[in-house]
């Protein structure tokens, strides 16, 4: 009985934790006790953790210090879904399963599972390699010891540091270094 009660409490805690990931982005408000910073929120419409400019105080719990923390708490554990929750790409034979990129159409790639095999998905690389203009490149930041490109839902998220400029792509926005 004690085990059952503990299990129920655990399930409710996990459910409550997941609910914060569904909260809409809130930028908070300016205050004298904290500095504005770049934070991360889970965007349910794309299934991605995205950067935003946090004003320092307030907001909601869908507000994480790092992309890694956001991903660990909010990203779906299914590894078989396509980026930005897009539908799998149908091959010429009408199926979506694949073993390698060549199995998919030219505008797709094979999103593989750890156990082997996968599904064909549309390419979204163009957003991960933004067109920043002559002599400019995407801004890469260190997050949890990893180097990552900052992405946001759109430029209104005000997430790009001062030494960069926001560029909107097909699915999301990125930061390009200023010259």
UniProtKB/TrEMBL annotation:
Gene3D superfamilies: Pancreatic trypsin inhibitor Kunitz domain. Keywords: Signal. The keyword Repeat does not apply. Residues 1-16 form the signal peptide. GO terms for molecular function: serine-type endopeptidase inhibitor activity. The keyword Signal applies. Pfam families: Kunitz_BPTI. Residues 21-74 form the BPTI/Kunitz inhibitor domain. PANTHER family: BPTI_KUNITZ INHIBITOR DOMAIN-CONTAINING PROTEIN (PTHR47248:SF2), PROTEIN CBG06772 (PTHR47248). This is BPTI/Kunitz inhibitor domain-containing protein. It comes from Caenorhabditis nigoni. The lineage of its organism: Eukaryota, Metazoa, Ecdysozoa, Nematoda, Chromadorea. The gene is Cnig_chr_V.g18617.
């Amino acid at each position: 009985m004690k085990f059952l009660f503990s299990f129920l409490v655990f399930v409710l805690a996990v459910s409550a934790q997941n609910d914060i990931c569904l909260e809409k982005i809130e930028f908070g408000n300016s205050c004298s006790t904290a500095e504005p910073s770049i934070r991360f929120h889970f965007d349910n419409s794309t299934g991605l953790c995205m950067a935003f400019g946090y004003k320092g105080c307030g907001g909601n719990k869908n507000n994480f210090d790092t992309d890694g923390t956001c991903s660990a708490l909010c990203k779906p554990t299914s590894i078989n879904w396509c980026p930005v929750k897009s539908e799998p790409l149908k091959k010429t034979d009408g199926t979506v399963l694949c073993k390698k990129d060549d199995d998919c159409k030219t505008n797709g790639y094979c999103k593989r599972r750890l156990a082997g095999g996968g599904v064909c998905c549309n390419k979204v690389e163009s957003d991960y390699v933004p067109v920043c203009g002559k002599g400019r490149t995407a801004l890469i930041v260190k997050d949890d010891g990893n180097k990552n490109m900052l992405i946001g839902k759109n430029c209104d998220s005000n997430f790009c540091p001062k030494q960069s400029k926001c560029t909107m792509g097909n699915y999301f926005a990125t930061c390009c270094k200023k010259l």
